[in-house]
Amino acid sequence: MSARTARTRLLAAAALTVATLTMTACSSAEGTRDEGAPSASSTATGSSSSSTTSGGTTTGAGQASDKGSTGTTGTSGSTGSSGSSGTTGSTGTSGSTGSSGTSGSTGSSGSTGSDSSDDSESNLSPCTPANTRTTATVVNRPLNHVLLTVTNTGAGNCDLAYYPAVRFGEAQSVPPVIEDSQPQAVVTLAPGESGYAGVTVSAADGSGRDGYTAKTLEVYFNTDSTSPARPTLPAKGVYVDSSITVTYWQSDMADALSW
């Protein structure tokens, strides 16, 4: 081998050695990049976005009042905030408007007129001992009953209202009335007409207490009367006990004796 050839080979080997050392140095300075790992210069993009607020709430129908109020409009949902690269939250739908409450109905006006029964009573022309004649008759049926008869002897109509307050002998209390005997209207007597009331003076079965024989009778045409009629009783008198009751004034004799 010639000296020229040997020198050439020596230079080639040296160059190869230098190249090898250079590559080795580069490899030790930077190392091998991991393809699976994230780049050191890049930051992970936030993928979570704030939760999206749901659409506005729907208000119920406005409640009725005297002048119905309108329901409140639902509030719009808020838009979700976006992250670095997250998706934008959907906008909430607007709540529906509550329907208007119906206008309250106006209450009917209360009656301002006076009670009809009060009016009818204030227009009564009461019968009195001065314009009537009163009799007391002991009847056979029903047993232990006395029939009171009031006849209009005046020139105009008169009214027998409510029921008689009777007093046999020295009695200190007014006998109770039979409530079921109340007629539908006040008994009005034209001149010559008569009204009636029945008096149960004692119990037919003897169950009454504190019995006595009365020989006098006072009849007040109602509990507001101040002057009584004084019909005569049989000479032997009338037996009265604690079971005494009276009926309301009736326009028919049979009605007065049916209790």
UniProtKB/TrEMBL annotation:
<dbReference type="InterPro" id="IPR008160">
    <property type="entry name" value="Collagen"/>
</dbReference>
<feature type="signal peptide">
    <location>
        <begin position="1"/>
        <end position="29"/>
    </location>
</feature>
<dbReference type="Pfam" id="PF14016">
    <property type="entry name" value="DUF4232"/>
</dbReference>
<feature type="region of interest" description="Disordered">
    <location>
        <begin position="28"/>
        <end position="136"/>
    </location>
</feature>
<dbReference type="Pfam" id="PF01391">
    <property type="entry name" value="Collagen"/>
</dbReference>
<feature type="domain" description="DUF4232">
    <location>
        <begin position="127"/>
        <end position="250"/>
    </location>
</feature>
<dbReference type="InterPro" id="IPR025326">
    <property type="entry name" value="DUF4232"/>
</dbReference>
<keyword id="KW-0732">Signal</keyword>
<feature type="compositionally biased region" description="Polar residues">
    <location>
        <begin position="122"/>
        <end position="136"/>
    </location>
</feature>
<feature type="compositionally biased region" description="Low complexity">
    <location>
        <begin position="37"/>
        <end position="115"/>
    </location>
</feature>
<protein>
    <submittedName>
        <fullName>DUF4232 domain-containing protein</fullName>
    </submittedName>
</protein>
